Structure formats: structure tokens, C-alpha cells
Amino acid sequence: MNLWDRRIERAQVLETEYPAAAELLHFYRQIAAFQKQVAQAFLPVSSFSFSPPELPEPLRPYLPPLLELLQRVAPPELAAAATGPWPPAPGPQSFFTQVLVQPYAESLARRTSVAPSSTRSACPFCNELPVAAILRPEGEGGKRSLLCSLCLTEWKFRRLLCPRCGEEDHQKLPVYTAEQFPHIRIEACDSCRTYVKSIDLTRNGLAVPEVDEIAALPLDLWAADHDYSKLQPNLFGV
Ligand SMILES: [Zn+2]
Ligand SMILES: [Zn+2]
Fold first, then answer.
1. 232 contacts: CB under 8 Å, gap ≥ 6
2. Ligand 1 midpoint to CA 166 (Å)
């Protein structure tokens, strides 16, 4: 199945499973359907350069239809921002940019050979920070990788190592779980008070990490209440 169709379908399943994130997931599905068109359109292959919030040239034609879509389906504040003229700026504008750059960066990353493992916590393709960690089955216990917040490239990363500050002492790297999300946990660091959510594919092979990450919104709220900040927010700024 097409990558985007899998994401959309997974969001639909999670929408009924996790009512707390239903509204966000419903909105995500509409965004993802738009991103699918961007990903599938013929975009010239060039070297990837992105200096936010500037929009890369090949993506500019997609901005008006995106703004039109947002005026119809986005939450009120975002819908209002989509009616104005578009100056590259932080805030809602950077959301518009990210929606467009994400599928573009992903399709370029998939055509490039990227080092599959790295000791760095920034993406080996686009240099952005990871939005989540992924545990995949391998031998005994899961092997951890990080998932780029922008181009969704995945690279192997040591399991007991804080991607923010490099802490390696397992006593300072607590893991928090919630019954509601048996396959998602919070991997925190008490040295720098940062966390990433990890999606455990050994416990749920149907999970689509970038989508399940959005569904686990209550875990982010819990972490914020306990003075942890997320290493990198997702598309929706959570
Ligand atoms: Zn990346
Ligand atoms: Zn740390």
C-alpha cells in the first residue's frame, strides 16, 4: 500500500481508538491527503535546501490550494491565518511551510542514500531533530532508531543515550508508560528534562510511528505536567 494511504488509514483507526486525539487525527487525515498529492506530483530532483520559513521554489504552486483547504477544514485560528497574504514568518505560516516541505523532503530523502545509522541526534539527510523514536524487532529486545520530524528518515541510534544531551546513565533515563498506550512510551532524560516518545513495533506491528505519535497526545500533556519538554514538536506543534 502507498505510504500516504497507510498513514491516512491508520489515522482513521486511531481516531476511534483514542477519542482524546480524534479531532487532531481527523484534521491530520485531511492534511495527509493533500501531502500525498504533493509527494506524487512530479517535482524536479535537486539538492535539498530549506531555510525555514522560506518556501522552496518548486512548492510555491501548492500554497494557494493548501490555504484554500485550510480555510475549510482547519481549526478556527489556523483557518483565519490561511485567509491573509502569505509572508514567510514563524507562527501559523511555518505550519503551512512544514505541511508542504514534509512530503517534498521525504521524497527527496527516499531517492538519496542516507547513512542508516548515526551517532548524531540530527537527521543524516536534512539535519532536523527527531519527532519520535522507533523500536523494531531485532534479536532479543528492540533496536532503537530515531524518526526525523521533517523528512521522516529513520536512522539507528543507541538505545541508552539521550539524543539531546548525550546522557548515558540509565538511572537518569527513566521510561514512563501508560496503560492506554501499550506500545508507546516516554523515554525521558532527567539531566536535560527532555523526552521523546518511542513507538514499539515489537508490541504493535500495525503502528505507523509518525501517526501513532500524534494519537498519543495525552502522553505529551502528562510529560509537560511533569516538567519535561519534547525534543522536537510534531507538525501540529505538540
Ligand atoms: Zn530529515
Ligand atoms: Zn538529556
1. 128, 129, 130, 131, 149, 196
2. 20
**CA angle centred on 25, ends 24 and 30, rounded to 5°:** 100
Taking the centre of ligand 2 as the mean of its atom positions, its distance from the CA of residue 230, in whole angstroms, is 11
Neighbours of ion ligand 2 (CB under 5 A): 162, 164-165, 167, 189, 191-192
Helices (H) and strands (E) in the chain, counts: 7, 7
Alpha carbons within 13 angstroms on the beta-carbon side of residue 140 total 0
Q: DSSP state, 15?
A: H
pTM: 0.93
55 DSSP assignment: P
Instruction: Please give the distance, rounded to the nearest whole angstrom, from the Cα atom of residue 2 to the centre of ligand 1.
Output: 20
Q: Which residues of 196-227 are buried (b: 16+ CB within 10 A; e: fewer)?
A: bbbbbbeeeeebbbbbbbbbbbebbeebeeee
List the chain pLDDT tens, one digit each, 238 residues. 799 999 999 999 999 999 999 999 999 999 999 999 999 886 666 666 777 667 888 898 999 999 999 999 999 989 998 997 766 666 667 889 999 999 999 988 888 887 777 788 999 999 999 999 999 988 766 689 999 999 999 999 999 999 999 999 999 999 999 999 999 999 999 999 999 999 999 999 999 999 999 999 999 999 999 999 999 999 999 9
How far, in Å, CA of 43 to CA of 35, rounded?
Answer: 13
